[in-house]
Specification:
Number of domains: 2
Strand content: under 5%
Number of strands: 2
Oligomer: single chain
Number of helices: 7
Length: about 160
Amino acid sequence: MKSVVRARSNNNKLMVEWNAKGQPCNNKGGNKLVSYIGVVVRQNISIKFKHWSDERLNAANDIIWNDIIAIFDVDEQHKDYIMKSASKALREFRTNCGKCLRDAEGNVNLKPLAKYANLIDDADWIEFVTYRTLDEKFLFEQSETPSPSSATVDLDVMWMDAR
């Protein structure tokens, strides 16, 4: 990201070439753009937001868009692609954080990992952990890994219990 920082400090805009489908070309500035979108999202949007369509994110969306157009030479016609990429980056970040909810012993981490500590406030982390550990899907995913005692359960019995 050195070239992005350098371009920002020199008030230069980085060029991005787009293909016929409206996607940035990888070796023509597209990789830098997509990577930078992820950085901007992690810095400006909290993981406590469950959905990108949350009304409270409208101001953050404007910040992201203004930050992108300050560094990259992109038109308004590419805003939809960029905002969809930002939404994807937030989901990916939340998924990666969700993988760090528990330590090796299965205890819930009450603080974010060191690599996320500068991006996530402790209060936001607690709210995220609370939401994710109470989520039925999360609990199901955690129970999917068979323990030695559950591996001996007959599949017919488990099927009947599930129905």
